[in-house]
Amino acid sequence: MRDLTGELLAAVVAATPERKYAALKVLRGELTGIPTKAEPDRLLRPRVAAFRLGVTARTVFNLMKSGGLTRVWLPGRQRGVGVRESQVAAIVAGGGGKQRSE
User: Of 39, 65, 89, 97, which one's alpha carbon is 20 to 30 angstroms from that of 15?
Assistant: First the structure.
């Protein structure tokens, strides 16, 4: 028990004021934990997005051209593009894509 108490005290002393305040709120029951950073939205290649949507890659490019999907240029590439996974998931959840038979 003493080792745990000593570790806790050492962690509190070494913590930044923001972390101390967050820990105090957790101990008081005001928070369930320290907020974490949201993960960045993943990029999908057009072929992968097409597979998930059940359409062709050409249709994905047409959706990017019409504004249905946001075109994201890949860093360090001249022609490389991707689409946000969250947008593709929203279309799939809404039932917007046709099923492709293989």
Answer: 39
Q: Which residue has the tokens 């290649």?
A: 45
The answer to whether the CB of 43 falls within 8 A of the CB of 72 is yes
pLDDT tens profile 65-75 = 999 999 998 88
For residues 76 and 68, the answer to whether their CB atoms sit within 8 Å is no
What are the pLDDT digits (tens) for 26-83? 777 776 555 566 667 889 999 999 999 999 999 999 999 999 999 998 888 888 899 9
Q: Write the CB contacts of 59 (distance below 8 Å, at least 6 apart in sequence).
A: 50, 53
Nearest to 64 by CA among 83, 79, 38: 83
Among 89, 83, 88, smallest CA distance to 70 is for: 83
Sheet holding 43-44, edge to edge: 43-44, 81-84, 72-73
**Residues counted in the chain:** 102
Strand runs labelled E in 19-75: 43-44, 72-73
